[in-house]
Write a structure and sequence with these properties.
4 strands; four-stranded parallel beta sheet; globular; Oxidized Rhodanese, domain 1
């Protein structure tokens, strides 16, 4: 990893493709319910960052692959950090909805 890789933002489009390739993975949208209702990646589950402690209702097992996104990538970065501190082992920040180019529900 080079110095400039530290500043590179995750690519949500690539992240969604990776999510689709991983069996039993969960795509987690940590935006508000209002933002989620305004359009989200098909198949995603909404769990606002402020309620991240309720993750066990969605992913009981700590090894469950989680792919996390928000609007810009900032809240998803926070969510990934919190989930890792809660013991989740396979958590990926895939960035923000603002850069998403796929189908929206």
């Amino acid at each position: 990893m080079g110095f400039f890789d530290l500043f590179r933002q995750p690519d949500i489009n690539q992240g969604v493709e990776e999510y689709r390739a991983v069996p039993q993975a969960i795509l987690l949208d940590v935006r508000t319910p209002e933002e989620y209702g305004g359009g989200h990646v098909p198949g995603s589950r909404n769990l606002p960052l402020q309620q991240i402690e309720k993750i066990t209702a969605i992913a009981e097992k700590k090894e469950t692959p989680l792919f996390v996104y928000c609007q810009s990538g900032a809240r998803s970065r926070q969510a990934v950090s919190l989930l890792q501190r809660m013991g989740y082992e396979n958590v990926n920040n895939i960035g923000g909805m603002a850069a998403y180019r796929g189908k929206v529900e």
